[in-house]
Each structure stands twice: as C-alpha cells, then as structure tokens.
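Re: that chain you flagged

S.,

Sorry for the slow reply, it's been a week of failed gels. I finally had a moment to sit down with the sequence you sent. For the record, here it is as I used it:
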Amino acid sequence: MTTADYIALAFFAFVWMGYSWLLHGRTFFGRTSLTHAMTERRREWIYNSLRRDLKMIDTQIMAGLQNGTAFFASTSIFAIGSCFALLGATEKVDAVFADLPFVFHGGHAVFEMKVGGLAALFGYAFFKFGWSYRLFNYCTILFGSIPMMRDTERDIIAAERAAERVIRMNVIAGSNFNEGLRAIFLSIGYLGWFINPYVFMLTTAIVIFVLARRQFFSEARLAIMDAGPPSNLHLSAIRRDMPSSDGRDLPEGL
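Prediction finished late last night. Pasting the structure tokens below so you have them in one place:
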C-alpha cells in the first residue's frame, strides 16, 4: 500500500466518525436532522396508541419495521458471501484491472486486504441489523404491556411509563438500524478504493454529502416537520363554523 492509500483509509474513517458525531447532535446550521425529527414522530405514534383499544395498526407498523430490518440483515449476509467469492477470483480481477486506465493495482495481497475491508463493512452492518431486529422484537413485547384505554384513564402515570419504555426501545432499535444502513451506503464509497485512493476519497465525500443533504436539507425532512395546516383544511372549530365554499351552508331559499 502507498501513502495515498493510508491517507484515503484514514479519511474514510474520519468522515464516517464525523458524520456519526454530527447526527448525535440535535441541530446543524440551525436545522434539526431527519433522524431526530423522526424520533419525535415515534414518540407521537406511541402516545397516540394509548388512545386506541384496538392496536392492530400499531402491531402492523412494528411488523413492518422488523421485516425491513430482516431484509437488510439478509442482504448483508449475501454481500459477505460475495466478498469471499471475490477472493477466489483474484487472478481474473488482476487480468481485468491490467486493462483499465487510472487503476492503481498493488498486487494480490493489497486486493485481498481491500476485499477483506469490504467484508468487514458488511459484517458490521449485519451485526447492527441483527441487533436492531432483536430490539424491535423486544419493543413489540414491551408494546404488549401498554394498558388498554380504560386502564390508562385510571392510572395515567403508569401508562406513560409503559409508553416511555416502548419509545426508548424503539429509538435505540431505529438508531442501530440507521447505523447499519449507513455502513451499507459507505460501502459504495469504499468501492472507489479498487480504482485508486483518490477516487476512494472522492466517492466517500460524495456519499457523505448525499447523506448529509438528506438529513438536513431534503424534502423528506420538510415533510415531517411541524407546519401550519393548509388554508383549505376544514378541521378546526373556527373554520367548521364558517360557510363552506360549495354553498351547502347557505340559508335555505337562496
């Protein structure tokens, strides 16, 4: 490995840790991240469930979260297997790289080390997804301890404590899922290392830029932020007393 390879690898680790640290903060340039905004929506969801006796909707949401986590865990396992299969094709890869421009190929040992690093990324993602799946399972069990609506009215404090346990477990499970997904995204930037270390740093920077934009400047973030209702929404008590625009509230005979 060359000095540029070590610098690129250090850059990859630095921006990964820096981005993770950035998301642990609540704001960036005065903007709340998409992850923190969704944490508040999780809280609203669980507290809304206290007002429902029939919680089939909530259990379906829990099942959807588990199924998505299981999908990515399985995908990570397949990716790890593909990395080991790639190690058995080193000579073929050498022949391909020899004909490609701008590719710095350091030999079998360097290539195998790079593939090993890629497998480690997918292994890290698998452990995060696996732990997240288990935590979502625990979250489902804790959700079963939420009292029915009539019991909530009798002891509001106990109901709120049960809801907070579910919220905390759900947030931790979602955090582990996000970390595993982040490793999957960064593995795309890691692929640039197979070309040369400069492309590695460029692709890593592009991936981090895209992820940061989605967290702080995307339409998805704006979609879940609190905003005033549109002018044509007739749900408030004030607007309900106003005449409707189609004339149905006009006095009879007009």
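What I noticed first: Strands lie at 27-28, 31-32.

Talk soon,
D.
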